[in-house]
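Morning, I've got a small favour to ask if you have a moment. I owe you a coffee for this, so here goes:
>
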Amino acid sequence: MHPNAQTIETFYRAFQRRDAAAMAACYHEQARFSDPVFPDLDAGGVRAMWAMLLAGGQDLRLEFSGVEADDQRGRAHWDARYTFSASGRPVLNRIDAEFAFRDGLIVRHQDRFDFHAWAAQALGLGGRLFGGTAWLQRKVQARAAQRLAAWRRR
């Protein structure tokens, strides 16, 4: 297995164990992260995001597959099952991840998922009706940014 593929495996195994410190150790100091909810986080932000999500997602279950990597890039697929805390609704989020590496660590991590499908599960009727709109996505992003900022201040 390529060492960068091993880094991806280490990251997701730490995620499964709910070990935010081990996940954080997989990121380079210059790391950037993005997904449809957290569109642009620096290394400190992504480390805080995972810690916050793990602290709140008590029933989170994660499965990953398709790990591939070479000297510069990697990818994986992961499925997250959890209860969305704001609504109490169950969610199955199917995510495709892309990675870039520097010095054997993740320097760029981009997760892609269907925001509309996620919103329909997490938010119910409002998510089904408005999940395909930029308005709802911006609203969810703003709320997530507020939660993360509060988490980082504590």
Observations:
- DSSP finds six helices and six strands in the chain.
- The chain has a mean pLDDT of 96.
- The first helix runs from residue 3 to 17.
- The first strand starts at residue 27 and ends at 34.
